[in-house]
Amino acid sequence: MMLNQLPAQSPDALLALIKMHASDPRSDKIDLGVGVYRTDEGATPVFAAIKAAEADLVARQESKSYLGPEGDIGFVKALIPYIFGGDPGFLGRIEGMQTPGGTGAVRLALAVAKKAGVTKVRMGTPSWPNHAQILSDVGLETALFDHSAAEGTIDADTVLALIKNASAGEAVLLHGCCHNPTGIDYSPEQWDAIAAAFADSAALPILDLAYQGLGDGMDDDAYGVRAVLAAVPEALVAYSCDKNFGMYRDRVGALYVLADQAGQLSAIMSNLNALARASWSMPPDHGAAAVRVILSDPAMTKLWLDELATMRSRVGDVRAQMAAAGQIGALDLTALAQQKGLFSMLALTKDQIVKLREDHGVYMAGSGRINVAGLHSGNIANFVAALKTVAG
Asked: Are 33 and 364 in contact (CB under 8 A)?
């Protein structure tokens, strides 16, 4: 008997929180846990651009045959100008492949980095919890550094120092924009310094770009990725369309590799294909095909960008409304206005978070991370009032 020797694993905290919220009968409960975009009505809609692309696929798609481990190459290439810009000078050294969501892209990036000789990955904390889980499962040593210097501020000096002092066999994993969970991003000037540090470093940059378009816009949110890739000989970029196309359950992602020489891309991609084949064999087709259809049609592209702008504007409005609440006891909400994307961290104690849940029906991660898109015109006042009760 072998399987019965497996020890029980701790349940995922976020999944447990989702179940708790679902079973709460209170009509005024507030879900700030699950990381999906919501409208002011609390819905997570299918983009009109996606519906149009899906209608096109139903009418014209002639086969559901396998794509191959590299996936929908039309999708991969259609994203390139949006991620890397029109003609940055390094496009001839880039190639990519489709992955099952941004999670698949991160896992594939770390797996190929390990195969290439990386033994240690430096990662800022706090970070997306699955980063650490993937690193552990892939079998890479993780060295942590502080992403935030204090509430609402960033510790750029630490990341610059560790990049400059990195040894061969090390990689540095950075969020491209809309940092999860803090919402605190590097400024363009800080990204320029990071790029210069990487240029003189032995470290391999691994950039996770999961929320492009939800911060300041498609080009602004890609500034850091473009700055680093323009400065370094090689890098890995994990990308997700799950958020900026609203395709969470379709798992739409891509991994891009920047090689020192264009002639090295074939060998690198052969390793990526082998790793993908051993992990998921072939990626799912539907979501990536829908994105490809959108990006190949100017009218659909405009519709998608307009919908994305609406999302971005709403998240910004929520942040502004929260920031207007100012100081609540030791809790300073003003920093939320300068942060980007769906997430922010509130400096609450574990007891305060439990009290918010039990007494006020407010559900958030135990770390204090909130999904600001879970707030809207009908519940912001209630949330602020609840915060004043437990933190004021």
From this structure: yes
